[in-house]
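Help needed: design a sequence for this.
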């Protein structure tokens, strides 16, 4: 059991029941045309309040119309926002959680066409567009805006606010030398660059009341050249404590940094804990840490070892709102795990789409699910295929009271996702598979292994519905000379299964996600690898955050990447191709293996058995159309909810 994570803690004037904070996340849904909160966002927070977290933050609360980070985030810059915020607070309050708002101004990282910043320097990545330097009068106006926003939050009934001074947003832009080259009282020296933050803290405490807890989120390190560094944070922290901060929440990274603010599965769990640990040594007030802390036992150790006083969870609480309650009971295997893919959350949000979650399709749908009639007519369900889609469907069918049987033609579950988990740095993909396996075991749903769907098996089970989650297989391309070459020809699937092996010099045909992770799998032990991508972009189906770390690995392992490739022909030991826009053809020679890792085609042979059964057949996942994991799990849960 956990001996530290569920101890209470005093934060300013608040008594908090445990050491878990749901950090602020810009989820980008649940507001109306005036950016006032609506039912979807309210029920999103209600669901997580029910889950047992001690503190919880609304993300992206804009203090000024010119600092809105994304279009569909709540605004705090006009009194008209108060009634809907008050309604949200009233819905959350019964669940014994301290509820707050993170106040921010995006500065040069705002999505708006007209951006302001301390200096007229554009953001180094993600957000494009011209930037105008703020005038002194405007800076003072923004200080007041933070204070007024905090007042509105208190009037709406929130328990606390957090000032966002991290991640390259406006306050952080003032603090970092690379984004602040002002020569007035807000630039130059350390004291001048931090003046804006101290003035905001004072304004917030004045407008909201000295007894109203005000936390601060700041970077321990920007991880960018000439940025804010840990030594600066250690120097700043005692001053913030003296100025009345209730807690310090230590994070890292900005747009364009070498370590991303929202890191993917390639980054070690607890990647920013050392930053909080350094700050905790110089202050007495509570320090909160963050950064891929997904295992509650890991979180408990952080508190036990004195590295931080609280742990912030973001994506883990998106993936499973009941994470805290399950962790407190010691039900670790029942926590639906974040896999660190960054696809449904940050990738969707930065594309100005509603945020979601690959492993939890219910994100953003809580307001509908909480109103649905849960009554079902029990039916006999046969799920064919025990990959992620098949197991997800079987789990939810069983939870809804149906009689479920699963058959799998292979000797183990997991499908192609279990193969992807074998690639370097992608082992956490197994976490969601293990979750489904354990859930099926808990629910008494057995899997019949080495059992393809046959007419005899179908007759024996006699189901009402058949869910075909039979997956996909590599599609072999037709290219001149490919099948006549003396090079070994293998698929990425057979390679990752261990059925076939590659030589020491390998051509990977395909630059999508599977092509790149296959290249990484081959290059990691030292093989020479070239990737030929016939498309214009690499791994478009991955989130930009996940792809960034993978590309860095490929660079380190000297994998050569070509895109916009037009293959002319294969030879005995190589290939001739042209790159779009280049006049000269490229010839590769001396290679011993070609790995096919381009398209996948759905496996749908079992469909022909439908005419021999009374059951209605449904396709889900790759058997419907090969795509990424988000669609597989979403379709699985949708089909389980649609049959009653």
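Sure. Designed sequence:
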């Amino acid at each position: 059991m956990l001996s530290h994570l569920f101890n209470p803690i005093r934060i300013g004037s608040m008594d908090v029941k445990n050491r878990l904070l749901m950090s602020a996340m810009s989820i980008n849904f649940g507001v109306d045309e005036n950016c006032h909160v609506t039912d979807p966002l309210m029920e999103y927070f209600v669901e997580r309040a029910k889950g047992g977290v001690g503190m919880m933050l609304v993300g992206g609360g804009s203090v000024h119309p010119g600092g809105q980070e994304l279009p569909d985030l709540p605004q705090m810059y006009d009194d008209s926002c108060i009634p809907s915020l008050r309604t949200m607070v009233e819905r959350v309050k019964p669940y014994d959680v301290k509820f707050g708002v993170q106040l921010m101004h995006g500065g040069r990282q705002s999505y708006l066409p007209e951006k302001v910043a301390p200096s007229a320097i554009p953001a180094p990545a993600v957000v494009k567009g011209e930037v105008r330097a703020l005038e002194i009068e405007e800076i003072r106006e923004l200080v007041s805006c933070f204070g007024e926003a905090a007042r509105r939050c208190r009037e709406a009934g929130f328990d606390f606010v957090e000032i966002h001074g991290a991640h390259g947003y406006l306050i952080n832009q003032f603090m970092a030398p690379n984004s602040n080259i002002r020569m007035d009282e807000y630039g130059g020296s350390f004291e001048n660059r931090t003046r804006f933050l101290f003035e905001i803290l004072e304004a917030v405490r004045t407008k909201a009341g000295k007894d109203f807890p005000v936390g601060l989120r700041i970077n321990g390190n920007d991880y960018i050249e000439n940025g804010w560094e840990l030594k600066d944070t250690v120097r700043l922290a005692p001053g913030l404590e003296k100025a009345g901060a209730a807690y310090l929440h230590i994070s890292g990274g900005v747009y364009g940094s070498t370590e991303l603010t929202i890191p993917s599965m390639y980054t070690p769990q607890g990647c920013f804990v050392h930053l909080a640990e350094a700050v905790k040594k110089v202050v007495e007030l509570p320090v909160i840490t963050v950064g891929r802390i997904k295992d509650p036992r890991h979180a408990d150790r952080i508190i036990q070892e004195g590295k931080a006083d609280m742990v912030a969870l973001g994506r883990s609480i998106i993936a499973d709102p009941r994470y805290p309650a399950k962790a407190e009971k010691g039900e670790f295997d029942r926590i639906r795990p974040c896999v660190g893919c960054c696809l449904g959350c940050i990738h969707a949000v930065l594309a100005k789409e509603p945020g979601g979650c690959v492993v939890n399709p219910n994100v953003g749908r809580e307001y509908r699910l909480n109103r649905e009639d849960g009554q079902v007519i029990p039916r006999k369900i046969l799920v064919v295929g025990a990959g992620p889609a098949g197991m997800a469907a079987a789990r939810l069918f069983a939870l809804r009271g149906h009689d479920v049987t699963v058959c799998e033609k292979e000797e183990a579950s997991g499908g192609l996702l279990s193969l992807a988990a074998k690639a370097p740095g992608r082992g956490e993909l197994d976490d969601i598979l293990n979750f489904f396996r354990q859930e099926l075991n808990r629910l008494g749903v057995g899997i019949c292994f080495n059992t393809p769907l046959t007419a005899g098996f179908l007759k024996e089970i006699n189901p009402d519905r058949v869910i075909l989650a039979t997956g996909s297989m590599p599609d072999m391309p037709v290219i001149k000379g490919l099948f006549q070459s003396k090079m070994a020809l293998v698929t990425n699937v057979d390679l990752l299964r261990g059925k076939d092996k590659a030589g020491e010099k390998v051509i990977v045909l395909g630059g999508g996600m599977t092509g790149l992770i296959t290249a990484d799998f081959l290059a990691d032990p030292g093989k020479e690898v070239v990737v030929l991508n016939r498309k214009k972009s690499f791994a478009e189906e991955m989130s930009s955050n996940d792809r960034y770390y993978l590309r860095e690995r490929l660079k380190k392992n000297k994998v050569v990447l070509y895109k916009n490739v037009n293959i002319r022909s294969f030879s005995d030991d190589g290939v001739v191709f042209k790159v779009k826009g280049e006049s000269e053809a490229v010839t590769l020679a001396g290679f011993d293996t070609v790995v096919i890792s381009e398209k996948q085609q759905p496996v749908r042979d079992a469909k022909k058995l439908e005419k021999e059964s009374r059951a209605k057949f449904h396709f889900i996942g790759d058997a419907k159309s090969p795509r990424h994991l988000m669609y597989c799990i979403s379709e699985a849960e949708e089909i389980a909810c649609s049959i009653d």
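Residues 54-312 form a domain with the TIM Barrel fold (CATH 3.20.20.70).
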